[in-house]
Design a protein that fits this description.
Layout (H helix, E strand, L loop, with lengths): L1 E2 L6 E2 L4 H13 L5 H17 L3 E3 L8 E6 L2 H17 L9 E4 H10 L4 H11 L9 E6 H11 L4 H11 L2 E4 L17 H13 L3 E5 L1 H14 L9 H16 L5 E2 L1 H23 L2
Parallel strand pairs: 3-8, 4-6, 4-7, 5-6, 8-9
Antiparallel strand pairs: 1-2
Helix pairs in contact: 1-2, 1-8, 1-10, 2-3, 2-10, 5-7, 6-7, 6-11, 9-11, 10-11
């Protein structure tokens, strides 16, 4: 388990190709919190790689939508650069590639034309959501930018509804910052191990159904009960957690993936802590 200093969020490692990707980002990012956001960034890339090929017992696909935040701009730039490199390396003929964005660019557009804020958030919900979207999306947000969104989300207005709806559709991971003395350069090329893993995935991953083991089903039943009636930000909690659990299961075994309790706990824990952090941020506005 890896622990974020800010959220006390335990993040299980990804196995297989997912672990290769997450470890590469963690090893090269110049901040201490890397495991949290690197793991979710890897899941987002895998969501694009596997999208449309695997689905769960209830027909949910593996696409995942991630939003991470930190006070460290260099960390955001690093993760964005690495995930763009991974995105470009997805083999041709695979499902739609991930659309990777940086939240502060999105937020800047709303500042430029405040009258267009509602339209921009509406577009985000329509194009970058598990319900309507086609691609896996990774947003990266500076803490100050996310607070601006939280301010709007706290209002009882149509614009506030759109922002709450947008945030509910993403997996949110806040991360503490902490630079090393001499941060490494952002890698320009994919390591050979990652390139081989992506190539191997193209040959082995056949698609199909990700079966849920009994313990995983029980874990989600308990989470469903705990999340019931907790508010609009929890509306998509189960779907988001299922997607994360599926991706972790596929990363470990792309041939015959079975969602086990560790996979379920992985998704449930990340989604729960992320929504609780968002609720606290909105309540503080």
């Amino acid at each position: 388990m890896q622990v974020s200093a800010q959220t006390a969020l335990e993040v299980s490692t990804l196995d297989g190709i997912g672990g290769v990707l997450a470890d590469w980002m963690t090893a090269t990012v110049p901040v201490a919190w890397a495991p949290d956001l690197s793991t979710l960034a890897a899941a987002s890339v895998l969501g694009a790689l596997y999208a449309g090929r695997y689905f769960g017992d209830d027909r949910i696909t593996t696409q995942i939508y991630t939003l991470g935040t930190t006070t460290d701009f260099d960390a955001l730039d690093h993760i964005a650069t690495v995930t763009h490199a991974l995105n470009a390396a997805i083999p041709a003929g695979q499902p739609p590639r991930a659309q990777l964005s940086v939240w502060r660019e999105f937020e800047e557009a709303t500042r430029t034309s405040r009258s267009a804020e509602a339209d921009i958030y509406t577009q985000a919900v329509a194009e970058w959501s598990p319900t309507f979207g086609r691609d896996s999306v990774l947003f990266l947000a500076d803490t100050s930018d996310l607070k601006s969104g939280a301010t709007i989300a706290s209002r009882d207005t149509a614009r506030g509804w759109w922002v709450r709806e947008l945030l509910a559709r993403f997996v949110f991971v806040p991360a503490a910052s902490g630079k090393d003395d001499e941060p490494p350069d952002v890698p320009a090329d994919l390591p050979d191990e990652v390139a081989r893993a992506l190539h191997l995935h193209g040959r082995l991953a056949r698609g199909g159904v990700v079966r849920a083991g009994t313990n995983a089903s029980d874990a989600f039943a308990d989470a469903r009960q705990a999340w019931r009636g907790r508010g609009p930000l929890w509306a998509h909690a189960e779907t988001n957690a299922l997607k994360l659990a599926m991706i972790r299961a596929i990363a470990a075994d792309p041939l015959e993936p079975i969602m086990r309790q560790d996979d379920a706990d992985f998704g449930i824990r990340i989604v729960s802590r992320g929504i609780e952090a968002l609720e606290a941020l909105i309540a503080a506005r």
